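pinging the channel bc i need a second pair of eyes. not urgent but kinda urgent?? the chain im working w is below, pasted from the shared doc
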Amino acid sequence: MAFEVLLVAIIASFWVGALPFGYWAARLRGVDIRRVGSGNIGATNVFRALGAKVGLTVLALDALKGFLPTWLAMRSGAGDWEAILVGMAAILGHTFSPLVGFKGGKGVATGLGALLAAAPLTVAVAFPVWLTAFLITRWVSLGSVLAAASVPIAAYLVGHSLPAVGVLTAAAAMVILKHRSNLWRILHGVEPKLQLRNSRPNLEGECLNLARTAVERMVLEGAKIEPDLNRLPTLLREPGSVFVALYQGEQLRGLMGSLQPQQHTRAHEIVYHATRAALLDPYHPPIDPAELPTLRYVVYLVESYEPLRNLEQVDPRHDGLLVEWRGRESVLAPPAPNCSPQDQIHYALTRVGAPRNERPVVYRVRLNRLG
């Protein structure tokens, strides 16, 4: 293939790869996929956020972005390394798409399409590697990394030219590098697993998943997630106040919330207070990334609250306490079934800094505990 023709094919392939189908598919449903889940625009995150039908459609379109330019290059007389170079341009376009601020996907589906056109025998090796890793661990990212690593080895063994093997090695390295945050989460036990069933978790599962995802994204990446309201129970799509508690074993590690809603839905309240509990609780140091695997999450949906005249009315099995002292602080003590009412009240007073002989305003808070 002439150099000028190859250059045009590479440029065209890059722009085909840059088409952000995952972002567009989510936008059609009113979702900014960059603010949901992992924040990635690739098929895996779309699958988690919008379901199997949309996720598989994006997977096919992303693969087509790699297949079509590479196949056309092969039909135009390109050698194996030239066709693979065209396919790598599509991967680069997908990974660093100018259409979404040079932040695209991770190149796995687009790379698969390019390989199917230029080096199909390598797919016969790489796909079983991916499938085996995924079925054992349910981690798409780990399967993708291992499959990418196997591609240049398979290409060499099936007889592709050394330049082609070199290009595939570079492409595999780029895919693996894009997965470095996933590898970190795998090592620390916080990488999410893909569930094949398109089922809707119950209210408790949704609340805890929101809190956990919000904390992990903020602690690891400094990014705020956006709840996908279309997939959440009605109760979480409505306004309402919540408290979120983080525990290590039985030790409280962070707690934030409010009696009056501060966000427009309970889902947004959970995200807001979970990240504040992790990083801004004045009684505890910020959560360190290494602590994430040890955290247990509890979400409290506030049902009602009322000032208490008689502190003996507190039921530690169901009630939380909100203490106001000198008009400057308020702290919730979540229900503590193993505490007496007196112990629970003392704990609340201690957190707010009120001496025992003081008479702060105490509210009994009816809570729906999840977790």
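so The chain has two domains: 3-187, 203-370. and The beta strands are 242-248, 251-257, 295-307, 319-325, 329-333, 361-370. — does that match what u expected or am i reading it wrong
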